[in-house]
Amino acid sequence: xxxxxxxxxxxxxxxxxxxxxxxxxxxxxxxxxxxxxxxxxxxxxxxxxxxxxxxxxxxxxxxxxxxxxxxxxxxxxxxxxxxxxxxxxxxxxxxxxxxxxxxxxxxxxxxxxxxxxxxxxxxxxxxxxxxxxxxxxxxxxxxxxxxxxxxxxxxxxxxxxxxxxxxxxxxxxxxxxxxxxxxxxxxxxxxxxxxxxxxxxxxxxxxxxxxxxxxxxxxxxxxxxxxxxxxxxxxxxxxxxxxxxxxxxxxxxxxxxxxxxxxxxxxxxxxxxxxxxxxxxxxxxxxxxxxxxxxxxxxxxxxxxxxxxxxxxxxxxxxxxxxxxxxxxxxxxxxxxxxxxxxxxxxxxxxxxxxxxxxxxxxxxxxxxxxxxxxxxxxxxxxxxxxxxxxxxxxxxxxxxxxxxxxxxxxxxxxxxxxxxxxxxxxxxxxxxxxxxxxxxxxxxxxxxxxxxxxxxxxxxxxxxxxxxxxxxxxxxxxxxxxxxxxxxxxxxxxxxxxxxxxxxxxxxxxxxxxxxxxxxxxxxxxxxxxxxxxxxxxxxxxxxxxxxxxxxxxxxxxxxxxxxxxxxxxxxxxxxxxxxxxxxxxxxxxxxxxxxxxxxxxxxxxxxxxxxxxxxxxxxxxxxxxxxxxxxxxxxxxxxxxxxxxxxxxxxxxxxxxxxxxxxxxxxxxxxxxxxxxxxxxxxxxxxxxxxxxxxxxxxxxxxxxxxxxxxxxxxxxxxxxxxxxxxxxxxxxxxxxxxxxxxxxxxxxxxxxxxxxxxxxxxxxxxxxxxxxxxxxxxxxxxxx
Length: 787
What we know:
Blueprint: H1 2-23, E1 35-36, H2 37-42, H3 72-75, E2 94-101, E3 109-116, E4 120-124, E5 133-138, E6 144-146, H4 150-156, E7 159-164, E8 169-174, H5 177-193, E9 197-198, H6 200-210, H7 215-224, H8 260-273, H9 281-293, H10 297-308, H11 318-331, H12 338-354, H13 359-373, H14 383-390, E10 395-400, E11 406-411, H15 417-428, E12 436-442, E13 447-449, H16 456-465, E14 475-482, H17 494-508, H18 516-530, H19 549-557, H20 579-582, H21 598-631, H22 638-649, E15 658-666, E16 671-680, E17 684-689, E18 695-700, E19 704-711, E20 714-719, E21 722-727, H23 731-748, E22 757-759, E23 767-770, E24 784-786
Antiparallel strand pairs: 1-9, 2-3, 2-8, 3-4, 4-5, 6-7, 7-8, 10-11, 12-13, 12-14, 15-16, 15-21, 16-17, 17-18, 19-20, 19-23, 20-21, 22-24
């Protein structure tokens, strides 16, 4: 009896050593093991013979599996190979001494004899024949290799490679770069030769697809495979295969994610929490955000949701409908891969046949329609959108247009800017206009045209996430985009109001070159058109809403000899000290505290106070002039005031163009040193000195051979034999507008669509639009979408 007990103790000890060596963890083994395609076809199993279940706990806390139940792949991990001599194995590819990082030891790196074969990477205590094998990393096509990098060499003095396996991670070091590269290449070559690994879930999805017209077989598959059905138990492994390895070397890791496999298991836990959550919206947003950041997890979450909505014990409860609500949000945000999409569509039809005229039937129908329209979103749906989707409703979107007007439109998660523009044209009666319109993201100081294929829900989400700029709220605005024929606009139309309001925006921003007297007159006409006749009880808007603010500063910087009425809008002073010397840090900029120059600091503070006081005095003086001019306009109707305003604005030859601030490349100096305005209009592209009304040079579209982005911030136009280079931050906007004008010209000549295209900013690549030298220019567009 003592001998038998001693033998039993040795067997148990050897078995536990082998398991600890190969599995390397104390936690539960993954319940859904991976299979190679070859292994599954060789054992003769049919599609209905795949039977899997979640691991069950025994009284001692271990999984209820015996060693005989370990699958073939795991058995290969515990074959004792140390009895065979290293020289006797014909499959050895590479062998040699390497340092391995050892955790839990005061010696961080230890030297071992490593041997690479066609199936695994093993290491031994020595290179002698019969040496004890200390560890094995089985190589499959899911393993990954991280190549040596200079940063590790600088920190440690060693070149390192990292091999990730299912349960192990080997960090190996050598002093020789060529040796590290040789090992990395060899291991990667073995990984590349391995057959693709499929999970049982993938095999069962394929079986369901093959037997989808045989309900009895499909029901039998679900009945005998708990992996396909709803469960309250945790998930220990993903349903789909993911590569092993550190997230930072495989996928996005900017938000502190762990490996993709671990995140997949965490997501299933979040799904199960939906059943008991008081407010499901934060959990739903978290799942969607993870899927947005980690693209490979989208199919995994779809499979998990199909699993949790299949064969549910209580399908009509509110807790179970949470899964359908998340599936609805997923279907409106991400489109699954082709294989998972087929599986999902089959699941929706199966649910509809099992539960007709139920809430699940309604959700399944809504999801099926959404999948027909969904494209990948740029933003996670907002709290408001998720609430709407949970009720299968549409959102209300407020679209502003020039003036105080706005429209409310019902939109879905798939509505694009194109659709909103068309509906706004119908609502406002602008379908017959020869000019073109677009949506803009806008606040008081900034605006940007929205690409035609952009999802409006994404725009609303991004606008709600932006912080207000100096109290100015972000909004979605419908405006004129390409002014092709200003003379054809009727004075009584709403389009005329658009033209008037957008012209005033240019004036306030200082983008209409005019003398100070004209600008004061325009301010008075603006007051007359908005408020009417002067009255002491009439509320007067602040000066910066009527008059360009930089002109007030220009009056302070202007030398006494220069007449104020002739100073251009943004022309710098011609004489006197430079502004940077007279007003350090800008006109209103304060001085930094200097502990060694207290007196100088006080002097600067006093100077700033004096400047602020003078600035208020100048503003009050200008406002008094504007008010006097306003009084002289008594009796002018709103229509007359707007007409007079636009008459003055039209005196500028560049009226109707859009100005962009650029740095012009001067070939003689070899640098971008001259700041100019690049004006893009309906017929030409012009260059202006900032504040000057006359163009330095104009280039009709018929003379432009090509235009495009030459690098990240340089725009190039080729006109004849000249190459014009501009450095600007508005590359996307310039490309969009030039594309739109060329498309409008082509449309008017009967060679294009009814709607102008605006190229997406994300579609702009390094390259050029080459235009044939014909009297009527044509445009070879980048991938674009109509607006």
